[in-house]
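Renewal narrative, Specific Aim 1. Our central claim is that a sequence can be written position by position from structural information alone. The example that follows is taken directly from our test logs and has not been curated for this report. It begins with the structure tokens describing the chain, in the order in which they were read.
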């Protein structure tokens, strides 16, 4: 049996004492106080954004409630004003068809107009009825009755040049269609440009004004046009009723149209346009004289012929300015 050992050296008073363990002292770090000031400001900017977004959300919510509350009304109004694509397409096709028919029937009308009828009463009557069926009431066009005093006319070609909308009245659209006509009078070939004013009504062309005879060839002769011409188109002004000015204008128009029909070499002295060439003026009527500022606008009709006994009557509209003691025509039939 093992007995416990007693170490007497630990009991003996002379025995050395065990050295005590030194406790570790906690080291305290010396933190230096910073001399830099840290500003503490209120967050006004963040608060403003918060208020703004809350307000925006409230407005958006209110708007949605109002829209949804009246959605049925909005839908009904939209349905009432909705555009029917098929209806719109049909109207566009109808407009295109009308302009095409005006162009085609205008060609046919000019071909018949510039062709003398066979010298039989039936042929003359049929030609007259066919031409007059396309002319509005109150519009009289020379040559429709076929009376040309023995002059034989024959059309060689009618060519379409250009078409534009000249005006509108209710649902009726007025087209100005320009053609080039190559014809012969007593075997002499003539080339001219003719503009027809017509509407497409009740399934056919109706000519509402006298044809315009013009020469679209640009003049290459030197021009004495007034300096700094303006892009204008006079629609109103003061009517020139009587007096010396009216007499001077009427005298000038008479002389101008004589030069215009012949395409005289002196035409460029009083005009920036080119004449008809080798035609003779037989008469002219002035329907309206209007002046606005220094611009004078004249409207009327004139009758001319390439061959004696075969007259043509044309509508004309021109704009001119005073040039010293005379006038200068800047535009005609534009």
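The sequence written for that structure reads:
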């Amino acid at each position: 049996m093992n007995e416990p050992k007693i170490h007497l050296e630990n009991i003996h008073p002379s025995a050395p004492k065990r050295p005590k363990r030194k406790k570790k002292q906690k080291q305290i770090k010396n933190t230096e106080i910073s001399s830099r000031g840290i500003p503490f400001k209120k967050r006004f900017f963040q608060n403003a954004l918060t208020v703004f977004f809350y307000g925006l959300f409230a407005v958006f919510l209110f708007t949605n409630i109002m829209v949804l509350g009246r959605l049925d009304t909005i839908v009904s109004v939209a349905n009432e004003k909705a555009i029917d694509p098929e209806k719109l397409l049909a109207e566009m096709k109808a407009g295109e068809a009308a302009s095409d028919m005006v162009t085609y029937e205008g060609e046919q009308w000019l071909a018949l107009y510039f062709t003398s009828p066979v010298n039989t009463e039936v042929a003359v009557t049929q030609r007259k009825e066919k031409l007059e069926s396309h002319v509005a009431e109150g519009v009289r066009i020379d040559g429709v009755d076929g009376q040309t005093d023995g002059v034989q006319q024959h059309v060689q070609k009618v060519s379409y040049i250009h078409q534009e909308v000249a005006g509108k009245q209710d649902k009726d659209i007025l087209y100005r269609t320009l053609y080039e006509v190559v014809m012969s009078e007593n075997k002499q070939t003539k080339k001219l440009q003719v503009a027809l004013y017509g509407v497409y009504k009740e399934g056919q062309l109706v000519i509402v004004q006298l044809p315009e005879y013009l020469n679209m060839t640009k003049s290459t002769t030197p021009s004495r046009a007034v300096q700094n011409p303006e892009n204008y188109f006079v629609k109103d002004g003061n009517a020139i009723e009587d007096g010396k000015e009216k007499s001077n204008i009427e005298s000038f128009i008479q002389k101008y149209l004589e030069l215009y029909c012949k395409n005289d070499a002196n035409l460029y002295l009083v005009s920036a346009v080119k004449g008809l060439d080798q035609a003779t003026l037989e008469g002219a009527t002035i329907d309206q004289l209007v002046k606005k500022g220094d611009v004078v606008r004249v409207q009327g009709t004139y009758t001319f012929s390439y061959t004696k006994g075969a007259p043509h009557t044309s509508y004309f509209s021109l704009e001119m300015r005073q040039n010293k003691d005379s006038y200068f025509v800047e535009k005609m039939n534009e």
